[in-house]
Design goal:
alpha+beta, 20% helix, 5 strands, binds zinc ion, binds guanosine-5'-monophosphate
Length: 113
């Protein structure tokens, strides 16, 4: 997708600090971390948001959660971690390429603000 920041990160046109990559998923550190560990997990193919997940493209979402579990185990998030996706303006989505925030390293409140 033209003018999509995360597609440009996938293409290597914008630098990122990668923590995991395979054929379909990329994970990299968030530029503005909201916790001691703040990793973004994205499908390499453009999906606009969680609202655009369909039977045709949902396999990568399961794979993203497998990668999240693997990273959490490897990085020792023993006290817990949070995985969240913001969908749409009222939920605070600012980048319109599906991404899951993997946050860890501090306590989190519930419900989120
Ligand atoms: P959202 O607000 O859409 O849920 O999350 C977008 C996230 O992308 C934010 O946490 C923001 O800090 C991060 N972000 C935006 N632009 C960039 C970038 O160019 N590089 C990286 N690594 N993170 C970015
Ligand atoms: Zn994109």
């Amino acid at each position: 997708m033209d003018n999509c920041i995360f597609c440009k990160i996938v293409a290597g046109e914008i630098p990122s600090t990668k923590v995991y990559e395979d054929d379909t998923v990329l994970a990299f550190n968030d530029l503005d971390p909201q916790a001691p560990a703040h990793i973004l997990l994205i499908p390499k193919n453009h999906i606009g948001s969680a609202g655009e997940i369909t039977p045709e493209n949902s396999a990568v979402v399961a794979h993203i959660f497998e990668v999240a579990a693997k990273l959490a185990a490897e990085k020792g998030f023993a006290d817990g971690f949070r995985v969240v996706t913001n969908c749409g303006a009222s939920a605070g989505q600012s980048v319109h390429h599906l991404h899951f925030h993997l946050l860890a390293g501090r306590d989190f409140t519930w419900p989120p603000g």
